[in-house]
Amino acid sequence: MRRLIVSLCLLALAGPAAADTRLLAFDPADRVTRALTRGVTLEVERGLFGAISVRRILSTSARGSATIARGGPDEARRVLPDGVSEATVYTIPLEGDGRGLARALCPGADQTFLVLGRVRAGRPMAMHGVGRWPDGAYRHCVTLSYLYRGEWSAPPRAPVGETP
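Below the sequence we write its predicted structure tokens.
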């Protein structure tokens, strides 16, 4: 029992240290997606057991990136079209380039959310824009479909105080 507890403690401490930041690039798969984005690169963090969490969305063809935060209201999932399997909600903060992304996905919405499925290298991906309007109603705005293009490692981060 004692060995099990020690092993679990070591495993919990190793989780953040074993996290791996990657960049996954995707190209638009249809006309609607191409009209809104020329492609996206997702900055993802891969955990110890391979779980992937999206941290930022970067525009592949133009300057711009938006940090997104995992989590959001369950209502964002409930308004998705029938048969959609994507279920992970991310909130788009309305600061910096996040404001532009939110307006592009759901014009007129007070708040915008992205609903993604499991993000995996080598697999196509669908992303749903959902907005919350001033009347409090949630509406599905757009479905973006992407084809996988490639994966890169993020450059190592310099310790605080060091500048290149």
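The longest helix spans residues 2-18.
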